[in-house]
Amino acid sequence: MEGMDVLEEMAELARSGQAFALATVVWRQPPSSSQPGARAIITAAGEVRGWIGGACAEPAVIREAQQAIADGQARLLLLGTPEQFGVALGSVPDGMTVIPISCQSEGALEVYIEPVLPVPHLVIVGDSPMARTLASLAGALGWRTDLVSGPDFAAAGADERSMIVVATQGHDDEDVLERAVATRPAYLGLVGSRRRGATVLGYLADRGVPKDELDRVRVPAGLDLGRTTHQEIAVAILAELVQLRASGALARPVATPQASFADPVCGMTVAVTAASRPLRHGGVDYYFCCAGCRQAFEQEPDAYIRKETRC
To answer: Where in the chain is the domain with CATH 3.40.50.720?
Structure first.
C-alpha cells in the first residue's frame, strides 16, 4: 500500500470511527531502505498498512505511533544516533525523540507521526424540539450525530466510543434504555426528572439488568441549570459532554503499546517477541535486533551488561 492507497485507507478508517496514526518519512540517510514521503498507517492494535522502513525502524515506529494515539500528541522520531542528526543526546528539542536503530546499518530516518482520532459520535434517541436542538448544536461542533426515533434505535449503530442521549420522554424509555445500556457506551444519559429516572432504572433492575451497568446511566442528563427551556436543556447536555470529554472522563483505553527492549549490544529498540531472538542470561531475558547482536552478546555478555549499567 502506497500513495493514494494510503490516503484512501485513511478516509475509510476515519469514516468507520477508528483511531490510527499516520507515519511519514521526512528525511533519510542512505542506506536506509525507505524514501522521503513514504507513508504508513499504524492502527491502535499496532497493525502497519504501508511502508516506512524495514525491521530496524518498524518496531520503534509502531510503539511511538500507539503512544501518539493514546496521548493525542504528534511527534518527530529521529531514528539513528544523535551524531547523525547533529544534536547532543541531552539537547534534543521538545517533540523530537532520538531512537537508536540497527547495529548493521549506518542509515537514519526522520519520521513524523501524527495521530488521527475519530470525531465524537453522539446518538440522540427521540423526536422532540430539545432532541433536534441538541443534534443541531452537536453538528455545529463537527460531531458525528445521529438523531433517531425510539423504534428506529438500534444498538448496532453505537459502540463503546459513542455517547447516547435517550430523550424519548416517556415513549418506551425502558426498552430503548435497556438496548442502549447493552452497548456500554462512553456516555449514556436519560432526559427526564430524577423521579422518572429512578422508576425506569428500577424497572430495568427488576428485569435483571446488572447494577454496574445501570449505575453508569446519568439521570437527568446534562449539567444542572435548574428550571430551563428545552433549548437550554440541550445546551446543558452538550456542555456536560464537552466537559467530560475535556477532562478525559469519556476516554476509552486503546490497545496497549507492544512491550519493547533495548538491544544491549547496539541499543536499538526491539519488540519483546519470539522474533527478537530472546536469550536468558543471569535470570534476565534479553532481546536483539539481529543474529549478529545476539551472537556478540553470547560470546561476551558481561561486557555488554557492564556497558548497559554505565549508560
So the answer is: 121-247
Report the CATH fold assignment for 121-247. Rossmann fold (3.40.50)
3-state secondary structure (DSSP) of residue 213: helix
Strands of the sheet with 121-125, listed across from one edge: 144-148, 121-125, 163-166, 187-190, 217-218
Distance of CA 255 to the CA centre of its chain: 7
Eight-state DSSP code of residue 39 = E
Whole-angstrom distance, CA of residue 78 vs CA of residue 87 = 10
Hey, CA dihedral for 54, 59, 65, 66, is it positive or negative?
positive
User: b/e per residue, 58-87, with b = 16+ CB within 10 A?
Assistant: bbbbbbbbbbbbbeeeebbbbbbbeebbee
Cis peptide preceding 220, ω within 30 of 0? yes
> How confident is the model over 66-117, as pLDDT tens digits?
989 988 899 999 888 767 776 655 667 777 888 876 545 567 889 999 999 8
In terms of Cβ atoms closer than 10 Å to its own Cβ (0-12, 13-18, 19+), residue 27 is middle
Q: Measure the CA–CA gap between 80 and 146, rounded to whole angstroms.
A: 47
* Distance in angstroms (rounded) separating the CA atoms of residues 41 and 10: 7
Instruction: Look at residues 270, 309, 306 and name the one whose alpha carbon lies nearest to residue 286.
Output: 270
DSSP conformation letters of 138-181: HHHTT-EEEEE-TTT--GGG--TT-EEEE--TTSSHHHHHHHHH
Q: Encode pLDDT of 12-39 as tens digits.
A: 888 777 899 999 999 888 776 778 889 9
Between CA 168 and CA 173, with CA 170 as vertex, the angle to 5 degrees is 65
Spatial CB neighbours of 147, under 8 Å, sequence gap ≥ 6? 124, 126, 127, 131, 132, 135
